[in-house]
Amino acid sequence: ALAEALGKWGIFCHIITDRPDFLFKTLNPHLHRLHKRRVDFGVIHKDNLQVDMEATKTELLWLLNERNRIVDMEVAFIRTNQVSFIISDASYLAGEIAVYAKIPCYLVSNFDWYYVYSGIFAGDSSMRPVVNTIRGLYQLMDMAVRLPFSTRDSISSCRNVVKAGVLARKPSGMADAFHQFDLPQENKILLVMFGGEGVLDLNYENLC
């Protein structure tokens, strides 16, 4: 939605992500380009959003071990494509990339990974240097725009944090689910939403 809003101003967006292509199908093809790679990964989950601690730790250590290679590659990409500004949601390496590329970088998110990792690794003293390194990388960003569904703590590692409302939204008309799915009008509808990874294991009979 943010890339779509920027497109209305004629701003071309290079989108670096490993998210599925269908998420970007509404964007103007002349004003964006997808690049299927990642500069962070977040948290690895088991089923029902349970954090896989060992897998997350292993992946995080691997990523930081690859830090110099990733930064070099992204800086070269920025120079080749004459990128003038970075918006990060919420990669901590983006701050370091921006410093070497000599362009500004804003975080736009409702949390940072320092907040997440300092919580899940609170009992693992061996990860403290890693978590502190991530905090230092966020400090390199010029500004953080804190979106709704956040707290002061959820973006605590950045400088110049400003609170904002929803930056971009996509209005859509109401759909009549009974008509769309040919359901009897006397039926009741249960909406279950799951935005996580893995499998959502629910007993739907008991829920109903």
What would you note in describing this structure?
The chain is α/β, with parallel strands linked by helices. The chain is 33% helix and 12% strand. The protein has 8 helices and 6 strands, in the order αββααβαβααββαα. It has helices at 2-7, 53-65, 67-80, 93-101, 113-120, 128-138, 177-180, 204-207, and strands at 13-17, 32-36, 86-88, 105-109, 143-146, 161-163. It has a 4-stranded parallel β-sheet, with helices on one face. Strand 3 (86-88), helix 4 (93-101) and strand 4 (105-109) form a beta-alpha-beta unit. Helix 3 (67-80) packs across helix 4 and helix 5 (113-120) packs antiparallel against helix 6 (128-138).
Features:
single chain, 208 residues, alpha/beta, two-stranded parallel sheet, 8 helices, 33% helix
Helix content: 25-40%
Going across the major beta sheet, what is the strand order? 3-4-5-6
Order of helices and strands: HEEHHEHEHHEEHH
Beta strands, count = 6
Please, what is the average pLDDT? Answer: 91
**Proportion in β-strands:** 5-15%
Main pleated-sheet profile: 4 strands, parallel
**Unreliable residue stretches:** none
Shape: globular
| Tally of alpha and pi helices | 8
Give the class from helix and strand content and strand pairing: alpha/beta
